[in-house]
Amino acid sequence: MSTMIFVNLPVQSLQRSTDFWSALGFSFNPQFTDENATCLVIDEDHIYAMLLVPDFFQTFTSRQIADTATTIESMIALSAESREAVDTMADAALANGGSPAGDAQDFGYMYGRSFLDPDGHHWDVTWMDLNAAPAG
């Protein structure tokens, strides 16, 4: 069995989050979706984000949930197939309730843009030409 990754993130509104990620072309697994959580499918075989309402999220930890207006708890990076795909996703995020998280970064062999989702979680979208990347 392959290792699967589940990123767990608190969100204020499951509907708002579902609408946002659907507008970016993602789907959800209804098997792991209810009034407390929804399962965002990033890669249907291995990678998911569990979007949890704060009260439910808090049942998994004794630590305080980060206030994303003033702190950052993580930066989650997604790969894209092309520079154009980076722009398409970042533009869709900004058009559907996201906000910019920094300037575009262009290194020739690597291009990326960042955005904050409606709950303030930081996401990077990056394309890289591995054949052109500098050696270690």
Q: In words, what does this structure look like?
A:
The protein is an alpha+beta fold. The protein is built from 3 helices and 9 strands. It has helices at 14-23, 54-58, 83-95; strands at 5-10, 27-29, 37-43, 47-52, 75-79, 99-100, 105-106, 110-116, 122-128. The strands form 2 sheets. Strands 5, 6, 7, 8 and 9 form a 5-stranded mixed sheet that branches. The chain has a 4-stranded mixed sheet with strand order 1-4-3-2. Strand 7 and strand 8 (110-116) form a beta hairpin. The model has no long low-confidence stretch (mean pLDDT 95).
Write a short abstract of this structure:
With 136 residues, the chain is α+β, with helices and mostly antiparallel strands.
Distinct helical segment count: 3
Q: What is the rounded distance between the termini? A: 31 Å
Q: What composes the largest sheet?
A: 5 strands, mixed
Which H/E pattern describes the elements? EHEEEHEHEEEE
Based on CA inertia axes, which overall geometry fits? globular
Strand content: 25-35%
Rg from alpha-carbon coordinates: 16 Å
Average pLDDT: 95
Based on secondary structure, the structural category is alpha+beta
Q: Percent range for helical residues?
A: 10-25%
- The stretches of 5 or more residues where confidence is low (pLDDT under 50) are none
Q: What's the β-strand tally?
A: 9
